[in-house]
Specification:
With 68 residues, the protein is mostly helical. It has a domain of 36 residues. Helix content is 79%, strand content 0%. Helix 2 crosses helix 4. The radius of gyration is 11 Å and the shape is globular.
Length: 68
């Protein structure tokens, strides 16, 4: 596994832990906002973000839905 993929998995696990007490809609909005902020701060493209999430189709589908 590439380091970039491992880092993104750990970051997503942290997000899931932080938002575990929120509704599904609140979680989806929160993750969408974090993805956009992450892309801007690290100057990565949507494609690079999708690649780092590609091992989890649910997250990939969600990200494409909100960032397309």
């Amino acid at each position: 596994m590439k380091k970039k993929q491992m880092d993104s998995k750990l970051a997503l696990l942290d997000i899931e832990t932080l938002v575990s007490n929120y509704t599904e809609i609140e979680v989806e909005l929160f993750i969408g906002i974090l993805c956009v902020r992450f892309m801007k701060e690290h100057k990565i493209s949507k494609e690079e973000l999708f690649e780092s999430l590609s091992d989890n189709i649910d997250r990939l589908t969600f990200t494409r839905k909100y960032l397309s």
